[in-house]
Amino acid sequence: MTELRYTADHEWVRLEEGVATVGITDYAAQQLGDVVYVDLPGVGDSVRTGQQIGEIESTKSVGELLAPLAGAVLEVNQAVVDAPELVNADPFGEGWLVRISATELPPLLGEDEYRSGLS
């Protein structure tokens, strides 16, 4: 399995053959509570690192989805738009959010670094 990288904003990134799949971590999903709405960017949109590219709304709050890297949006996960609860049920699998073109990742956290920041 390809190694995941993490942002301090609780997003994960998996880079495979120039495509970065992005989602939120299980910690972020737990903190949000039951996700009821997901707003994602459009396919073809250009994004900058740190730019807000969407929102995830739960019964408790609204969280921003920030681009962890620059590139073009190649795909959005329509399944989470149609069934937002997938973000809670499987944040590292079926609950992924967007795929962005990428040739390299900016400096991101490894799993140990990310997990140590949670305590």
What does this structure look like?
- There is one protein chain.
- With 119 residues, this protein is of the alpha+beta class.
- The protein has a single domain, classed as OB fold (Dihydrolipoamide Acetyltransferase, E2P), CATH 2.40.50.
- Helices cover 18% and strands 36% of the residues.
- The chain has 4 helices and 9 strands, in the order E-E-E-H-E-E-E-E-E-H-H-E-H.
- The protein has helices at residues 26-32, 78-82, 86-89, 111-116; strands at residues 5-6, 11-16, 19-24, 35-39, 46-47, 52-58, 62-66, 71-76, 98-101.
- The chain has a 6-stranded antiparallel beta sheet with strand order 1-2-3-9-8-5.
- Strand 6 and strand 7 form a beta hairpin.
- The radius of gyration is 13 Å and the shape is globular.
- The model has no long low-confidence stretch (mean pLDDT 92).
What is the strand and helix layout of this fold?
Elements: E1 5-6, E2 11-16, E3 19-24, H1 26-32, E4 35-39, E5 46-47, E6 52-58, E7 62-66, E8 71-76, H2 78-82, H3 86-89, E9 98-101, H4 111-116
Antiparallel strand pairs: 1-2, 2-3, 3-9, 4-6, 5-8, 6-7, 8-9
Summarize the structure.
The strands form 2 sheets. The chain has a 6-stranded antiparallel β-sheet with strand order 1-2-3-9-8-5. Strands 4-6-7 form a 3-stranded antiparallel β-sheet. Helix content is 18%, strand content 36%.
What count of helical segments does DSSP give? 4
Give average pLDDT, whole number: 92
User: Uncertain segments of ≥5 residues (pLDDT<50)?
Assistant: none
Strand content: 35-45%
- Class in CATH? Mainly Beta
Helices and strands, in N-to-C order?
EEEHEEEEEHHEH
Helix coverage percent of residues? Answer: 10-25%
- The CATH topology is given as OB fold (Dihydrolipoamide Acetyltransferase, E2P)
Number of domains: 1
Q: Kindly, what is the distance between the CA atoms of the first and last residues, rounded to a whole number of angstroms? A: 26 Å
Q: Major β-sheet, in short? A: 6 strands, antiparallel
